[in-house]
Amino acid sequence: MSKSLHEKLAYRLADILTMLNTGESLSVDDLAQKYQVSRRTIMRDIDERLAFLPLEKQAGHYRLSVNYLGRLSYKDIRNFAQISGIAKLYPNLDTSFLREILDERATQVYSVKGYTFEDATQFEDLISQIKQSIQEQREISFVYKGGSRQVKPYQIVHHRGCWYLVAVKDDELKAYRLSRMSKLSILAQEFDVQTEFVEQLKQSESIWFGKNKVEVILKVNAIVAAHFAQRKLLPEQKLIKELDNGDLLLSSVIVDEKQIFPLVRYWLPHLKIISPDGWQERLEDGLKDYLGMGE
User: Fold this and answer.
1) How many other β-carbons are positioned within 10 Å of the β-carbon of residue 192?
2) Which pLDDT tens digit goes with each residue over 266-278?
3) Taking a C-beta distance cutoff of 8 angstroms, is the pair 101, 89 a contact?
4) What is the pLDDT of residues 58-96, one digit of tens each?
5) Lowest mean pLDDT: which of 158-172, 183-197, 212-226?
6) Neighbouring C-alpha atoms within 13 Å toward the C-beta of 4
7) Residue 60 and residue 43 in contact, taking contact as beta carbons nearer than 8 Å
8) Which of 80, 116, 127 lies closest to 101, judged by CA?
9) Residue 22 confidence (pLDDT)
10) How many CA atoms lie less than 13 Å away from 156 in the CB half-sphere?
11) Do 163 and 179 meet the contact criterion of CB atoms below 8 Å apart?
12) Strands, E assignment, the chain
């Protein structure tokens, strides 16, 4: 297929998607005339290229099922791009993004390497049950790490390639990895969704939750400073100052030292904890014990 035909296909499909999403009823003949293609081409668009859509046919017109109207928003596209790991490949997640991902040539231009993720198909039944419990606002019970849990489910979260259930237990948000959950049951007990937990979920950048956050100040050696300047490698990372020798002072906000210690160990000796006091020493002592070098 030539370049111009690829561009026309991408534009046509994006345009049809947009019209369907806004509730329009589309005629094959009208579409064929609008895009100057044959009826056969439009039917191929509908039967093959847009086969994933829940379309309804009435009196020769196609429209999106009423339950799905308005679902294809730019926010949805951004969420999908984030989950699939390709968000940063596209400078603008707007209509042009739709046209690019619908264009077969995109696979020749864009690629994602080194991104690992859990295959969600293994959790299909589990996710279905959790989804039902969230929508019905009913508590669930399950076995987790060998112990029984009863929680109020709030959201299914994809974080760094893994799937988690975020739920309320003992009046706190907690994350449970789906791969470690089993024997889930939806209980009769109903619960009211609390605004404070919803807001906490919206504001959190990870699956670590807690009311008492700690600010950690770190020094990054100039040798690796570019990595931290280009990407936020630390939780809620912010630049405090760039020193004259090229070192960086960064701030990271966490709820548990387990969020930061593994990252610091990975970047040793180029990353050092300045505060809170004693954290760097505790990190080093832990390494010495691991290596059998402790007193």
Assistant:
1) 7
2) 999 999 999 999 9
3) no
4) 888 998 877 666 655 555 555 555 554 445 444 444 555
5) 158-172
6) 0
7) no
8) 80
9) 77
10) 19
11) yes
12) 26-27, 55-58, 61-64, 138-144, 147-159, 162-169, 172-177, 181-190, 214-220, 238-242, 248-254, 271-275
**CA dist., res. 250 & res. 238, Å (int):** 6
Q: How confident is the model at residue 195 (pLDDT cuts 50, 70, 90)?
A: very high
Q: Which amino acid is at 234?
A: L
pLDDT of res. 256: 87
What SS3 state is found at 148?
Answer: strand
Note the residue count of the chain.
295
Residue 261, C-beta contacts closer than 8 angstroms, at least 6 positions apart: 283, 286
Does 84 or 164 have the greater pLDDT score? Answer: 164
CB 280 within 8 A of CB 218: no
- As a whole number, mean pLDDT of residues 13-22 equals 80
Distance CA 178, CA 128 (A): 12
Note whether 142 and 182 are within 8 A (CB). yes
Count of alpha carbons within 13 angstroms of residue 19, beta-carbon side: 17
- Edge-first strand order for the sheet with 214-220 is 238-242, 248-254, 214-220, 271-275
Q: Which residue has the tokens 């296909």?
A: 9
